[in-house]
Amino acid sequence: MLVGRTLELDVLKASFRQMLEGKGNILFLTGEAGLGKTTLVHEWWKTIAPDTASYAEAACSIPIGNVDVGRLEALQPWADIVAQLEHYEAKGKRKLDLKKLIFDSAPAWAWALPIVGGIAHGAMETARLVKQQQSDHNPNASNQQQVFQQYVNLLTKIAEQTPLVILLDDMHWADTSSTNLLFYLSRQINEKKILVLVTYRPDDASAANKGEGHPIIQVKNEILRYGGKGCSLSYLDRNAISELLIKTFQDYKTDDTFERWLLKISDGNSLFVAQFIKTLHEDNWLTDYGKFVGQYEHITVPASALAVVEERTRRLDRETCELLRYATAEGEEFTSFVLGRLKKTEPMELLKELRRAESEGIVRKIGSTRLYANQTTTVFGFSHALFHQALYQGLLDEEKEVLHRRCFEILKTEWDRLSGTKERTNSLASKLLTHAEKCGEIETAAAVALEAARGAWHTYAEAEALEMLSHVFHLADANASLPATLRIDALILKADIHYLLGRYEESLNAATNALKYSQILRDDARSAKAMQQNGKVYFHRGAYDEALDYYANSLAIQESIGDRKGIASSLNNIGNVYNWRGAYGEALEYYAKALAINESTGDRAGIATSLASIGNVHNFRGAYNESLEYYAKALAIRESIGDRAGIANSLINIGVLHGSRGAYDDALEYFTKSLAMQESIGERDGIARSLLNIGVVHGSRGAYDDALEYYAKSLVIQESIGDRASIAAALVNIGVVQLKQGNLPEARTALTKSKNTAVEIRSTQQIAYSLCELGLLCEAEAMQRIGAARTEKISEAVALLEEGLAIFREIKSAHVKKYEPELERIKQSMKSEG
User: Fold this and answer.
1) Is 0.90 topped by the overall pTM?
2) Burial letters for 298-321: b for 16+ Cβ neighbours within 10 Å, e otherwise?
3) What is the pLDDT of residues 84-141, one digit of tens each?
4) What one-character DSSP code corresponds to residue 49?
5) Strands 375-382 and 363-372: what pairing?
6) Which of these, 505, 552, 511, 554, lies nearest to 534 by C-alpha position?
7) Cα separation of 348 and 705, whole Å?
């Protein structure tokens, strides 16, 4: 029942009207427990014409037994929104082909429809299996930003067909990734017919994360800065309380004294007032007409809304109270499937009892279903978190232990049934983990936490994945009997997470520990994985000797155990090392071997990688036609499998090729496309490479200031992620531009740093490039001198160019054609002056 909310309703109505006009927004509804935030939205939505817009809501999971499960359920609220929209479609309420929309615009979110079972889902799964041959990550996204963008794309497509209202309830319990997605969405819906309503309790948000505060606080402030709206629910005043009494009791006569008393003892908390009125009526302090009879000093006044709710639950009949206490063990949201097994009650009798609880206003049926044991089950929820809290606290400690054990057994059976499928949800994992820990099933808890971490990382939910991994490490540290493989797998995943996010030191530390434990266990397969991870970090740091050692050792192990996918990956990685060192013949040999294996296994992503790598070698050698042929084949495969990161890399490759040919307009077009794609997926290394290559184009055209600007941006990113090979490349390009501008000291600083870095990482081609440019710099410096000093500098220039060219000739680099004429020109100049 809604009273006293005229101002709040006006805000909702105004936001809705603006949304229908194409001015989407985020509206925050805040207030303490019991003020009726959710009720406000529900009652307001009832006033909307059915065909005006679509509506979906999701509530973030509240703690179970003081365990904050909501923060572990990566993106689950947003997935629940998708599932509800599918539910609407299934009912025929909206003409939305949601499966097709997901397939076309948000394939990374196919997991959010765990029970669709249709052709589109089957096709999605088939494509996923093919693409996962190359990577354990989500093949439909290469970064969480891309996961977010796909969700925005999906909502945009839906909003083009029907205006959309979304309610995210209790965001103070939400995971970090869900909160970040809200912010990401807020920046893109200003011109879309999308209205997102967000409720949270400020006190709980401030107390979250051990007093550090929930991220929703900062996100809200940022969203409000960019045009979002906020509405803090006020307390009920006397007029609102009078309105509530009128709606509750037929023929109620205004009683100023009683209404003022209610306002004083409740502070205007709507839940307090509504529930306490029921208690007063049951105790005969109020007549059927709402007339107060008796004396105020004889009434025991509850201390809070929670106290009122506790009293209401105590008045339930024994069967209903026991049923709902059992339900609290599963959570604020619970299913008839689990509750029926906890109570060992027949479905019809159970639903009858739940209807009775609904009539008391304590629980409500949520408009969604869930699949358990190959059957759909109805989802219920407590009408307010305080009802859940009061009933759960009413359980004895021994009762809690028994119920958590039963919940564990039920959920574990479901977890095992879903083994090997894509149907295990973050929500199921977090709840099973909680019950497993509470009843001492430590090995299961650790295994579920590891699986949940993989699931979270599937959507690049870093915070939730690392949080789950911390559970694994904590349990492993406290329980020596746990299988060591759990710790090793968790370390390898942790290393991979840090590696993809450019945190190489953390990645190396985790990978090194994984290798140590694997070798102690004599687990060859895991040792090879850890070696590969170590090798990748050393390679990106430019420590090629160390990288090559790890890759070679990994290859030997994979060959011994017959891991063909691992063999191909190691071969390609070894080829990369030789390629960066300028040993093109050896690189081609390894790439060709990797390509043959990938073709034999049908690994299309692996085939594309090998083709692109072979194309790079031909490009470095100046065989542009052959290079373009390989690049085009790689790009076609990557486009066919939707590999956006791979597509962006192919665009860079083709752009470099056009630049080498002097087709600068074409090169710039490819680099610009690549940059936009890399930014959309948040690939920092890819962004840096795109920026660097755009700078090269500007430098080749003589736009030196623009070139330096792009080089500087690229260098900042590469220094932040520690990619020394790319740092050397950025520095040499900066040196070249400074030289062309006549800034000789600045040029020498950059080129010297580049050469030193290249020597440290033993990048043969980069050493040669730096030497030749230093030679040209010496020539320029000689022009500023006279006599012997000038001659000495010119001799130094010749020596540096000859040293660099010797390397280029040895590795058969196309740069020979560029620097040989420069060397001859300088030699001729020496003869003329001599």
Assistant:
1) no
2) ebeebeebbbbbbbbbeebeeebb
3) 787 564 444 556 777 788 877 787 787 776 543 333 334 443 344 334 323 444 556 6
4) -
5) antiparallel
6) 511
7) 77
